[in-house]
Design brief:
By secondary structure, the chain is α/β, with parallel strands linked by helices. The chain has one domain (4-119): Rossmann fold. The protein is 41% helix and 19% strand. It contains five helices and five strands, in the order E-H-E-H-E-H-E-H-E-H. It has helices at residues 12-24, 35-41, 61-69, 88-97, 109-119, and strands at 4-8, 28-32, 49-52, 79-83, 101-104. It has a five-stranded parallel β-sheet, sandwiched between helices. Helix 1 (12-24) crosses helix 5 and helix 2 packs parallel to helix 3. The relative contact order is 0.19. The mean pLDDT is 95.
């Protein structure tokens, strides 16, 4: 079943790759270049899942996850961290904030679509 997925990454080219993969699988995509802009998109509309980078200007991914989990309407929305960060310390911080999964760049688009299907059936 098609989902609405929010992509949060400061790299426009990466957002484009993710968007193409997800739209190819039938999903609707909305996007933001940082956590603060992404939070503004969580305005009551239906968003089934977020895919978020860690290192971004204005508001980083970990702070974005924490802020999302404080919003009642989005508290249980799954968030996948898609980042170059692979340290256990960063993964632990993401998990503690409420991220459901962690995927390290570079990634295969098919791998991302599979992860989305598992996290957001």
């Amino acid at each position: 079943m098609p989902k609405t997925i929010l992509i949060v990454d400061d790299s426009a080219s990466l957002r484009q790759v993710v968007k193409m993969a997800l739209q190819g699988a039938g999903h609707t995509v909305i996007e933001a270049g940082d956590g603060k802009s992404a939070l503004a998109l969580l305005d009551g509309r239906t968003v089934d899942m977020a895919i978020c980078d860690v290192n971004m200007p204005v508001m980083n991914g970990i702070d974005f996850v924490k802020a999302v989990k404080e919003k009642a309407a989005y508290k249980f929305m799954p968030i996948l961290m898609l980042t170059t960060e692979s340290s256990e310390k960063q993964k632990e911080a993401g998990k503690a904030a409420g991220a459901k999964a962690w995927m390290v760049k570079p990634f295969a688009p098919s791998q991302l679509v599979t992860a989305v299907q598992k996290l957001c059936p």
